[in-house]
């Protein structure tokens, strides 16, 4: 209980750190490692997961599929054209809702061979794009590229959970264990004169991550404690202006309810960890989409950052 209070206090403080985004650029955190990024009437979704299967469904080995009600409520594009869905790896908390967005907006879903397999199970093989390392994909005003990466070894610091390729023959077999990790990608996004880097799990392939500075590092923080010298290694290459903490909320708790935190995530220690490596990077967080104030009918919606 005390750790949850400390995490809540820490994240509330981080939410007040400004991101200083270019005019017109909006970044919304939709929970876990999920983001909606909008600019000039065009949106991208990254690792969207709002369906939030309860732990009971996982334990009972029920299929984990998009929840249409939650997708309608929290994956709205706000009238923007959706240029694509980007998926860093195919664990369920990153990939479940990608097919639902691709179907709704008839947009491409970009990621690994495992993502292509998932899309085919949903009857959407024609919308799947198996990406090539470092290739630059132009998606409206966004230029996107994918960097080979690694998932943190969360099992006793030695093993990646549900490693290997997504394996399933039919939709009703998509239980948690079927959502295997597949190839892991870090995702670089260039838009409005700035660069962002999204990493859904706290590990990397040192030689694969090019030394190219970014403005915002959307950093999954839950697994950082099992990755040796993680901040030293990744920040040396990315040199971000702002580290935006992500993937720290309890993804078994539904959106719209009380916020929970990943066990032992220690958000209060995050600023000191990063300051020990980088004097220049500030640390921030975004309010999750279900905690944003409803837009006023008489006023334009304001960016959440």
UniProtKB/TrEMBL annotation:
It comes from Conexibacter arvalis. It comes from the Bacteria. The lineage of its organism: Bacteria, Bacillati, Actinomycetota, Thermoleophilia, Solirubrobacterales. This is L-ascorbate metabolism protein UlaG (Beta-lactamase superfamily).
